[in-house]
Write a structure and sequence with these properties.
The complex is a heterodimer.
Chain A: H1 5-9, H2 11-42, H3 47-75, H4 78-107, H5 117-138
Helix pairs in contact in A: 2-3, 2-5, 4-5
Chain B: E1 2-3, H1 5-11, H2 16-23, H3 27-34, H4 42-52, H5 56-59, E2 60-61
The chains are: A mainly alpha, B mainly alpha.
Amino acid sequence: MSQSGSSQTEARPAGAALYGIYVVSLAASLLGNLLIRMGAEAGVLPPWGQAVLGAATAVPLMVAAVMFWRLLRRDLDEMLQRIVLEGLAFAVIVYVPLTALYLNLRTAGVWMPRLDPPDILMAPALLVAVGIALASRRYQ
Amino acid sequence: MKNSLPQLRAERGWSQGDLAERLEVSRQTVNALERGKYDPSLPLAFKIAKLFDRSIEAIFDANA
């Protein structure tokens, strides 16, 4: 409870803005992945260029992660922290068994949709959003 | 957990936003507290008790 009152009352807009930044950062990362694959297939991107592009397009996500951590530790009050943490817990709890089920069924030869890195990246982000929405409803 | 926060706040003519500012929490948290959807931590409960000059038990009813 060391936060200032003004930042508390603005917590929701700040959180919403941060989620927007996170989605944009994720899109940048996915775009980087797409450009790397296209560049490699067309033969216009050397391996070092692919590595640089891959690292550069992941930087916004790292910045968003640091901002998210700061928001969680400094700017959210105890209930909003709880909502975010419950959302993260929901994402982990759902993501791990779903991933295990997917891998096991795929290994067993059951038809499963092919998941590319973008799909795998997007799944936890969506699950966190769903988890936070569910947790928010519980406290409204 | 039921509590008398809405009455105590109304007696003072404060809005939920006013109370949130005094407690250094969000308005959503005050709303959830008043509706009994969220139970405060012990430090926040003490802060509420001090703000209204009551004991924690006088504000929060653990049996309700």
